[in-house]
Structure formats: C-alpha cells, structure tokens
Amino acid sequence: MKILMLPGDGIGPEIIAEAQRVLEHLATDSDLELEIEHGLIGGASYDAHGEPLTRETLERARNADAVIMGAVGGEKWAENPYHLRPEQGLLDLRQGLDLFANLRPAICFRSLASASTLKPELVEGLDILIVRELIGGVYFGEPRGIETLPDGERRGFNTSSYRTSEIDRVARVAFDIAKLRGGKVCSVEKSNVMESGLLWREEVAKLGAAEYSDVALSHMYADNCGMQLVRQPKQFDVILTDNLFGDLLSDVAAMLTGSLGMLPSAAVGAAGTTGLFEPIHGSAPDIAGKGIANPCATILSVAMALRIGLNRADLADRVEAAVEKTLDAGYRTADLGEGKHNVGSRGMGDAIISHL
Ligand code: IPM
Ligand code: MG
Question: To test the ligand 1 pocket, which listed residue (87, 103, 244, 298) has its Cβ within 8 A of the most ligand atoms?
Fold first, then answer.
C-alpha cells in the first residue's frame, strides 16, 4: 500500500510523525505492506516551491492508495493572495482528487465525556457523522473578489452556488452511510434565505423520496442545527450539509467529543479515487514545535484511511481500540485536561502503540 504523507504546517509534522509510527508499527505485526512517501503542502510547499501545492505532489497523491495530511496555515503566509495561501493547497488537493464528500465522525469516547465543555450526560455515547460537501459552494463559487466601487468604497464578494449533480452525489453518500448506521439523515441548509440552500433542500428531499424511503430524512436550518448540536447532540445520526456549514458545524461537533484534537475526517470521491484523510483541526501555530499537540485526530484519520481507503477494517478496528484503551488508561494531552498520565504528542503516540 502506497501512502503519501503530507505533514504541512504548524503542528502538522508533529502529529503526522505519530501517525506514521502507528502505521509502521501495524506493518510490523500484520500482513500490511507499506510504502510511505512524504510530500509538501501548504506554507511548507510555498516556501520550497512558491506554490501551496505543486502539480507533482498532486500527481503523487493521485497515484497513492491513500493520502494522510497534517494541517495547513499560519501567520507567516497570512498576507499572501488567496491563490498562494497554505489553505489553497488543501482546497486544490481536495478538488484535484475530486473528493466531493467529507466524512467527519464525532464520537465521544467513554473516558472523555467529562473532558467536554458540555455536561457528560449530553455527550456520553455520542456517535454522529457529519457529511460535508467538500468541493463546491461558497468555497469555490465564482465570481469572487474584492473590488473598489465608483464611490471609493471597497466591496468583497463570494458566490454560494450548487448544481443538482453536486447535491445529488454527496446526498447519496449520506443516505448510503445512514443505512449502515442509525438510518437517519438530517439535511442542513439556510433555505429560508438562500437559493442555493433551497435547491439543496428540494434535491435532497426528491432523492430521499425516490430512492431512500428506508432512511428517515429531516431538514433543519443551519443556525438551528448549531444550537441543537450543543442542546441535544444525540438527536442526530447523519448530518448532511454544504461546504461552509459543514466546516462550522464540524468544529462545534468536535467540542462535544472533548477536544478539537479528537476529530478525524475522510474525504472521498467516486469509487476508485484516492481518499484524503486528515484531522479536522488546524495547524495550531500557538503550540507548534512544542511537542504537546494531540495526535489522536490524525491517528484516528489513519484508522479511517485503513477502513475506507485500504479496505482493512480489521486494522482500523485495532487502531480505534488502541486509542480508546489509551484514553481509558488515563493518558491525556493538554487539550484533554488533566489525567493520570499527562503526555505530549510523542507520549500519546507511544501509549497508543503499546496498546496496539
Ligand atoms: C477544515 C479546515 C479547512 C476548511 C481550511 C484549512 C481550508 O478548516 O478542514 O475544516 O476550511 O475546509
Ligand atoms: Mg474547519
């Protein structure tokens, strides 16, 4: 199996190092055969090559069995024009691989229920999945820009747009997964104020009625969904939403699980395309280089890569169980609060490997 690792910026290299150690350990005690390569993305690529994702790196990603990424972004590149910002490298990678659906599971591990800022009884046993559309909507819509108006004022503008096929293909992913879980999809938009949201609602409803009568479909406005996620998160099973709302709501959902440092993700496309697996958190420049970042989201992204990208559910189960046992044994990085063993990135990686 050929894995391309893209550490990126900030804490990226530190958490990717632990993810790689977990993978390498698995290879030593299973029949998994690995070929691990590294590449640059984000600010690291910009510094080396003058662009946040090179054509060559994208080509290598296409030829890999799975891509595992750390994080991108940082102050250093904040003044770059958008097309040269670290974030653009990630957007180009998602788009270049045609990864239209992003699976963001928010699972609250038993021993972390008290680490959440919400009451433990609200989050205990939480298992929801956000299916975020990933290569459309306001992130990619045209026209966009900042212009100077005749009266001298400046105007910034972006376009939120979806076509039916873009809605249909990501909705199918959500419906199909819901069938394997709790059988419920909640489709989230702002159809009360946005045409792109109205079309979203209509298309999802049409598809649900035509092909997924066995899935219970509901609709919710995005603002209400944000509120419901912190009021009663366990009411949800699968949340299907657009690119921007998915970005927002997955950060909210992450805090339900104890820390933003716990949420993995899988970006997937049509059958046969290479998937991209990454933690949902950012590059956390404030703690970069200190060796204290929580590697769990990245290690759980490795589990998603094994399950979805490499078809090795057996190994994915082992990684997830090892993370759970490590947390049960009281290992905590700083973001998770105090535990029996207060560890940094390396210490958490060591503990997970020993539980493997
Ligand atoms: C995420 C991140 C990215 C996004 C950034 C880094 C471009 O916030 O994966 O949630 O906005 O999609
Ligand atoms: Mg985000």
Answer: 87
Cis peptide preceding 105, ω within 30 of 0 = no
Does any ligand 1 atom lie closer than 6 A to the CB of residue 166? Answer: no
Mutation test of ligand 1: which of 41, 88, 90 has the most ligand atoms closer than 8 Å to its C-beta? Answer: 90
pLDDT (tens digit, 9 = 90+) per residue, 271-328? Answer: 999 999 999 999 999 999 999 999 999 999 999 999 999 999 999 999 999 999 999 9
User: Both 249 and 120 in a single domain?
Assistant: yes
Q: pTM of the predicted model, to two decimals?
A: 0.96
Instruction: Report the CATH number that the domain containing residue 24 is assigned in CATH.
Output: 3.40.718.10
The CA 262 to ligand 1 mean position distance, Å, reads 15
Helix (H, G, I), strand (E, B) or coil at 251: helix
